[in-house]
Amino acid sequence: MDSLWTDGSRASQVYFISGAHKPVNLHQWGPGVRDVYALHYIMQGQGTLETGGQQFQLGAGESFIIFPQKEIYYYPDPADPWEYVWMEFDGRDAGRLIELTQFSVQQPVLPAAPETLEPWFHLAWNAGASPSEVFRADARLHLLLSYYMEYFPRETQEEARDYVWLSRTYIEQNYWKSTLTVAEIVQAVNLERSYLFRRFKEATGESISAYITACRIRRACELLKSSRLSIQSIAYSVGYNDPLYFSRVFKKATSYTPSAYMLLHQKQAEPIGNTDR
Fold it and tell me: Where is the HTH araC/xylS-type domain (predicted)?
């Protein structure tokens, strides 16, 4: 199960890497691939993007995105070279956010937006070494992407796929609440109950209630292996007010009691042999 808590770094979300302004010149790049996403906004002039066997002509106000590991080649029009701003970003949820826009591997170009998007690129570049500046750069990246979502939303039928992600995220952020219910999740994602149930089951192979239990047991396993908390504290930490009930659920899911699971992993963590003789 892909869990939000397994990676506490920025890479588990969407994070800003770098960006800059490219003044009018004859700079070109490729053919080649990049490891991250790179979003470009054309301020003036013209240029060409080649990728996936297609060729796209771009002009002022238009945008193009480079997808990770997709071969690309882009270059300016010699007679009217472009000027653009760009931003690189990555993270576990980067692809999901891009899927909420009309960008795709087959269509990496978007027309001009109702207003210029250039200022939002500049804002994200003001990232220094301090944690606060890095955090603000990530926030400004999200803000920029939100405008692409607003101005170039994916088709409604495509957006429906994301309700599953929203449900999973809500569960993974609230699994520790003993009061968490399926009805609360349905209300949080604002989708008709039976339709959400069907979509969730198709996407994950589990019911929503089973997914809640899986999240709780997964987190309990992490705590039993890495913390020195009591069984009671771990039970409360993962949404069970009754430690005995927690033990029954845990054993059914893992075939171990919580105390046996903890003891097993404590023994595995002990060094082999003892040199102090």
Answer: 165-264
123-145 burial, b at 16+ Cβ within 10 Å, e below that, comes to: bbeebeeeeeeeebbbebbbebb
CATH of domain 162-268: 1.10.10.60
Between 161 and 128, the more confident residue is 128
91 in Cβ contact with 14 (< 8 Å):
yes
**Residue 277, burial from CB neighbour count under 10 angstroms (0-12, 13-18, 19+):** exposed
Q: Give the pLDDT confidence of 248-273 residue by residue, as tens digits.
A: 999 999 999 999 999 888 766 555 55
Surface-to-core class of residue 26, CB atoms within 10 Å of its CB (0-12 exposed, 13-18 middle, 19+ buried): exposed
Q: Containing H/E element for 62?
A: none
Enter the CATH code of domain 4-157.
2.60.120.280
The tokens for 62 are 């238009």
